[in-house]
Amino acid sequence: MSGRTGLSSPSSKLLETVREDGNDNPQGENRRSKLGTGVSPSSKVQWGESIYPVQKERARAADPNGGACLLTGRKVAIETSHTLARATYHVTQLEWAWGMKKGTLYINTRYNLFLRADWHTLFDKDMWMLIPAANDLDQLDLATARLEEEMRKYRRKVLQGATSDPQGESMPPAKPSFQDVKRREFGNLFNKKEYEYHFVPMPNMEEPICRYSGPNLDKHNEFKFPYNTLGTLKSHIKPHFMAYNAGMKLRSQNSLTVASQIFPQHQVYPDRSTLVTVQLLYFKWTAIVVPEDFADHPDEAEQGSNEDHNNDQESRGKLPRLQRSGNGKVEQG
To answer: How far is Cα 31 from Cα 151, in angstroms, rounded to an integer?
Structure first.
């Protein structure tokens, strides 16, 4: 592996940084994007949440691998883990970009929890990612492009209202509302029970994967970098969660350079353009300018949102919260 180069150093111009432990808070991250302004979403940011037992059971029940580790196939030392990190700073932006109601992005939904064993740490250290299947990634790209077009129309209406002369008109133009923007809800866009993903390592990934087909530890296959013979992996995690995770891990990288170090020349999918796509989706979702009236809109989580659209509402309010202490560390609340 010594012939492979490592990752590039992080850029000082990153849009946002997300970390599972919730201790990183670079300047400008803990802000809600609004049209022309930015305010701290103190009511929205959760510095981590413990996973309530019922959420873990739901994740196991929904898992197409029967509760086994996604990579190794083993059912021992299994941990329930987040794809979209518990301490994400992009809640409002993602709710808007993903067509959700305000306050309904629930980090502990079963569709954001998947099962893994000893690869937990390597996943959290951004050493590997899962890329959605081509059709699912195309759906995300198309839905995001349509939202961008809708936002261009919305901004034109805002500018027309700001430059109009009420004295020369019988009635001033109506102020545009976020409800005028047509958004595709990603929870409805993806409603299958399982999805296919492709394992993609970072260039400095060296650990072999031992994949077991049953309880007999002597029967296993070993896969080494670049793991191109591993095949597709199945999970109940919805593609927009996984695409966000992959884009976050690529956010500070030259994705084409990373791809050239990962993919063999005969690789068909995922390929170099795939990494560019997930990186761009991440930037589009997290840097999106959210309409001010949406950002200020009351949370609708307690108004009966559909649990299948990422919420698990019946357990909401029972979960122990993690509070950020004065020294910046995360503590149980």
So the answer is: 20
